[in-house]
């Protein structure tokens, strides 16, 4: 087992079979190739995508269908081939989350660029959807309407 230091989780031991590998990195983080998915806690729908090379780099993610049951898109054949995906049962889909000013109530999901993971070989890509009806800031929690 490999040991990795992280800012958020301290020193952690890595099971190599759980390492998620982004061959091309993540957009804007092209030099980051190895990550570990760490649950926020057992009952939470959130996970962290922790970089194994940069201790202070961790992205908050969730499975989009929890908050957006109607979410749908097509993964292009090139991406499926690069990831080695042969069937839907090998797919794991996450979206990156943003907490503006650390305010959970204003949390948004980037539905325009889902993270696709092949659960068989742990290869991953963040795919920017072309001609998508989605954007990078879909609110997870609807705004509360003020009483009239």
List low-confidence stretches.
none
Number of helices: 2
Main sheet: strand order: 3-4-5-6-7-9-10
- Characterize the main sheet: 7 strands, mixed, barrel
What is the succession of H and E elements? EEEEEEHHEEEEE
Counted up, domains total 1
Q: Give the overall shape.
A: globular
**CATH class identity:** Mainly Beta
Rg calculated over all Cα atoms: 16 Å
The CATH H-level superfamily is BH3618-like
Number of strands: 11
Helix content: under 10%
Explain what you see.
By secondary structure, the chain is mainly beta. Helix content is 7%, strand content 34%. It has helices at 64-67, 77-83, and strands at residues 2-6, 10-14, 20-22, 34-39, 46-51, 58-62, 91-98, 108-109, 115-118, 123-126, 138-139. The strands form two sheets. The chain has a seven-stranded mixed beta barrel with strand order 3-4-5-6-7-9-10. Strands 1-2 form a two-stranded antiparallel ribbon. A hairpin with a 4-residue loop joins β9 (115-118) and β10. The longest helix has 7 residues, at 77-83.
Produce a short descriptive summary.
The protein has 2 helices and 11 strands; from the N terminus they run ββββββααβββββ.
């Amino acid at each position: 087992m490999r040991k990795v230091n992280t800012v958020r989780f301290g020193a952690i031991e890595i099971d190599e079979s759980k390492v998620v590998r982004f061959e091309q990195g993540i957009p804007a983080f092209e030099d980051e190739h190895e990550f570990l998915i760490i649950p926020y806690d057992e009952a939470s729908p959130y996970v962290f995508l922790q970089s194994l090379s940069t201790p202070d780099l961790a992205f908050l993610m969730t499975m989009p269908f929890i908050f957006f049951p109607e979410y749908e898109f097509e993964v292009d054949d090139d991406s499926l081939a690069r990831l080695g995906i042969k069937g839907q049962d090998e797919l794991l889909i996450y979206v990156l989350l943003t907490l503006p000013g650390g305010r959970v109530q204003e949390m948004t999901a980037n539905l325009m660029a889902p993270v696709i993971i092949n659960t068989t070989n742990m290869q991953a890509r963040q795919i920017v959807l072309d001609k998508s009806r989605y954007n990078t800031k879909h609110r997870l929690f609807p705004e509360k309407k003020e009483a009239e």
